[in-house]
Amino acid sequence: MKVLIPTPLLSYTGAREVNAEGHTLDAVLTDLDRRFPGIRFRVIDEQGRLRRHIRFFADRGQIFDPAHPLRADDTLILVQALSGG
Asked: What integer pLDDT is reported at residue 60 of this predicted model?
């Protein structure tokens, strides 16, 4: 599947768009980490939860669970959330 990478993670991939395989969000992130070591830890914490500052979207909307199923023809979009005052 196509994965769109936010600017803060470009140092890992070197490209705004990469391909990955997996039937769940967690599996796709594991595949990305195999190819781009360290990227998974930037979006998933030590307890396996999605980090608060990253949002995940697929063709059917926002993803809140690493076990969320994905299809091979989905486009996964990682978005860096903004905060501050």
From this structure: 79
Beta pairing class for 61-63 and 54-58: antiparallel
* Residue 41, token pair as written in the block: 């830890």
The continuous run of DSSP H or E covering 61 comes out as: strand 61-63
SS3 5: coil
Tokens of 20: 């990955």
pLDDT category of residue 59 using cuts at 50, 70 and 90: confident
Report H helices in the chain. Answer: 10-13, 25-35, 39-43
Confidence bin at 83 (pLDDT 50/70/90): low
Biggest CA-to-CA distance, the chain: 39
Calpha distance 42→51 (Å, rounded) = 8
